[in-house]
Amino acid sequence: MRSLGALRAAVTEARTTGATLLPVLAWAPVGGELAYRRAPSPVLLGIWEQEARDRMRNAFDAAFGGVPGGLRVVAMVIRARPGPALVQLADRPDDLLVVGYGGRNWLSRAFHGAVGRYCMAHARCPVLAVPPPELIKELRPRRHHWRAEDFAAPLAG
Question: Domains in the chain, please, with CATH?
């Protein structure tokens, strides 16, 4: 949801300025690069790369019903850590880097990193940090107290 909000904002900016939209989906192997180097699997790597391409296509479908017309779109799916990859791609002062920002809990940030924060700290161009849509805030309350029922599986029969 955060990424879709950022994608919508980026399309709006690209239309307003007439700029080329360069949506980027950066991905890494499940478990990270270190785990992959320990047990490489070209078959799994191909599957993960295809899943990343599908996520890019599905993002446009979910946000706009397909790639929006009326502007130039150059989509990129790359195998890299998101923060450094985005900062490296948006390296000119007249670029605009649009990222989803906020709305994650501490555990999610620990596993996925704070891409928006990294980009704001290291980018050499303006960064537009798009907050999460209200839907996320409504669906996920601030505090959740786990109960045993949250982990229970129904008995067969």
Answer: 2-141 (3.40.50.12370)
